[in-house]
Prior knowledge:
Helices cover about 80% and strands about 0% of the residues. The protein is an all-alpha fold. Helix 1 crosses helix 2 (about 45-60). The longest helix is centred in the last third of the chain and has 33 residues, at about 65-95. The relative contact order is 0.09. The model has no long low-confidence stretch (mean pLDDT about 80).
Amino acid sequence: MALFTSGMSLPPIGQLLYWGGVLFVSSYLLHYSTQQLTHKFGLLVSLIITFAVALLLVVAIPTAWLVGILVIISSIAVLLLSVFVGWQMKISIYVSR
């Protein structure tokens, strides 16, 4: 929701592709969280928990905060990925010798 209302101006085809990408990513994350919770709580409870958390994020938290949270989470993900890649690169250098 934060990305939909972030105020980006795109041409119509870019906006359509952007909306499609956001829809696919958000639906995947909702599916993934539901599957993880299903193993612990059962299907009905996991659907209720996932719907409640998604509704809370969309309704209760202001859009500006969601964009900020998205930027912070993205930065942390990039940092973790770069550390992992650096670690793997270091190991592969020593293994190939």
